[in-house]
Amino acid sequence: MRALITGSTQGLGLAAARRLARDGCHIVLSGLGDTETIATIQRELEATGNVRALYSPADLRHSAEIERMVTHAMAELGGIDIVVNNAVVRHVNPIESFSPSDWEQDLAVNLSAAFHTIRLTLAGMKSRGWGRIVNVSSIYGLVGATNRAGYVTTKTALIGLTRAVALETAGYDITCNAVCPGTSATPVHETSLEALMQRSGLVRDDAERQLLTGKQPTGRLIAADGVAALIAFLCGRDARDITGAVLPIDGGWSAA
Q: Considering the domain 2-182+223-243 in this protein, what is its CATH number?
């Protein structure tokens, strides 16, 4: 199997890359990072799974760069069987102060990039009669929030894209699903947690509960490995009858 994972040099995307490599998938990494760090990740993946780990520096704001990334990956690996659309940007501002450039970047990276990776890989999946697509939405694809118009809009729209693709591919043994993580143990949230611990003097468990008050009933961050395990299951053969699904992994947030 050959998997393209956007936003995979850190956080949830990297956790998914590690899990899929361990399961024997060749990996195409895409994301930000310095050359040495990315080379270390590649070596780790290749050693763990005895697989190839490619890296693309494509700027996902631009469709031409996405096309070059996919074309190169398919030439190197012979095709792409699994796409995990995880790349994301976040901008925080009230809507009247939300800059048009930030809005356009949110649309491009969070939504249009997923459209392009699917568009460019789907013909190959159909010709082989098998494929798996997982779109990483968010709890904010299921509920609203203030000061995050771009993020909430794109993560909600990603669910619509998931459903449309699932119906179009239902006869090809291709599935398309969305996962909706809550506040997860990723670098951006770890930074917030560390700042809270320093300000308040709280130990980690208490700081997590305070950070998540009114959100995740479990009171703890979502484990990146748990999200990766769900993605890996959806990418497997046992999940062939799950398609068009929107699966929260949010510590009960969407149930409240």
A: 3.40.50.720
